[in-house]
Amino acid sequence: MHSVQQVLAEYWPFILFLISGAASAAAAIHAAMTKQDVRAAIGWVAVVLFSPLLGAAFYLVAGINRVRKQRVSRQRADSSIPQEVIHQLLVEDVASVSGVQFSALKILGDRVNAFKLLHSNTIRLLDGGDETYPAMLEAIKGAQRSIALQSYIFDHDEVGIELAQALIDAQARGVTVRVLIDAIGAKYSRPPIVHMLEKGGVRTARFMRPVIGVRLVYANLRSHRKLLVIDGTHGFTGGMNIRAGFVTAIAKENVTHDTHFQVSGPVVYQLMLNFAHDWQFTTQEKLSGPVWFSTSSADFVLEGGVPMRCVPSGPDSTLGSTHDMLLGALSIAQRHVRIQSPYFLPDVSLVAALATAARRGVRVDIVIPGANNLKLVNAAMMAQIDQLILTGCQVWRASGTFDHSKLFTVDGGWSYVGSSNLDPRSLRLNFELDLEVYDRNLTQQLDARIDATIATAERITIRSLMRRSFALRLRDKIVWLASPYL
């Protein structure tokens, strides 16, 4: 009788073939049965079948969405806002503040998002790091009870060190501070700012930290959210990371542009609920009580105010929230849609919605960067842009340095701003956080900002695309084929 060692030595190629075949079949069946996007399903099945064993291993790490099954239970949205003021905050109709067509969009938002649309909010647009970081520093230095900060990137540079020291000082004077940084984003600078914060006594965590055997299976999922909540009553959110490159005095002529927003009112409660959920998922510590959530009605009920809500999205129960909101906004647009996105790779359904809006007579302006920090994404964008131009959308390549802003406005009365890009990663893989705002004043400010960019931009036409060399256009198309995985 052959020993086990003899069998393995003689038949190992056949055994390996059987194991590889079984693993590939199991992974391919799982992808076909669980993926909702046919392109993703086809892509993963191809990877698994044409890369025996290695493809199945890669799918195990990057292709299975375990977050939707193992997520921490989210608190019921707005559940802790004092009940005696809830009825004063609910927005029943938005026609008077934004326009009749937005009533249907408000209903859509109620159904695809857990958070209610509430008024009594204020919102202030902050232009780049020159306005954002001083406002954040001032808020941190004035904190009395708590500070919650979440960012995709928190660099260990001049700006990061100043903000980190302010957080450390706040902790030292008795303020409770929590900082959550994405595990991938934390590696953008060396040494990571995490070490400085922890040494200074600030409890800091890394979201989806890829520790082998624990978080490796989440390596393809990232938290792209950016928020800062002070004392549970006022906050900041938008598209900006914490980096010196956003400050003109430091980066000078190479400064990166962006937009961020300072908010107050009940929307801050929603921001804090998002942070508390992500923090508990990462650390198992539950944040609750008056330290983190104000129970004073004076912090919520203001005269008038802006109807607003948070829209979280990600590969959990909120999957598709932003995608659905953008499709809805395009379907109700009557006059003008303006979009500014640094990484503009809409999927088939969004391309169709943009094209349909343009064909209905809606003016659709799309602004992309002239200078992009991600070369592959820029190539994929250029390969796809003709699909929109041919249907009547106007696409503009901005001049100047890179602009990281993510802005979406409709008919001068509705805005969608925050961390989400219009690309597959942002819409399906990243944890994102945006604001839906029904306010003509903010929308006009954003429209003016986008129009100012268009005034100095180059309009992309089919003729200008065809003037590019065949080799360049072929390269772009090849990169575009991989766009769902960029």
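Next protein, fold it too.
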Amino acid sequence: MDEILEILEVNARISLEDLQKITQKSKKELNQTIKTYEKKGIIVKYKAVINRQKIKNDSRVVALIEVKVAPQKDVGFDLIAERIYRFPEVKSCYLLSGTYDLLLILEGKDIHTVASFVSEKLSPLSQVKGTTTHFLLKKYKEDGVILVKGEKNRRLPITY
């Protein structure tokens, strides 16, 4: 991968001056390269990783849903995947190998919202053959960022 992309992936807020120092490229060249990446859809979004466990009033529920689907002739999984990822509740959608075909990441205000989505919107789709829902209990690491501080070993030393 390109050096500029690697740097921006780790820190999208890096200043142009710092990026220039690291890459030894001119500001003009960096601006053009970044604009080209954005235009081509290589850089899609700049994002902050938020540790929602630290926000007191945030009671959102995250669910990972495995979906078994019947692929369609000549289009495979793409058409049903598109139909599913267009639902606003779906935050991410991945094609998988293995027992299930799609992995969805959903966010809802509570467990009932997620359950309603599965029972009223997802399961009734004719290509959906089965689902398994997992609720996220705790995030330890997201997008390469550790969200929990490691606890120091609280064991007492052995003395004789």
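About the second fold: Residues 44 and 125 are 29 Å apart (CA to CA).
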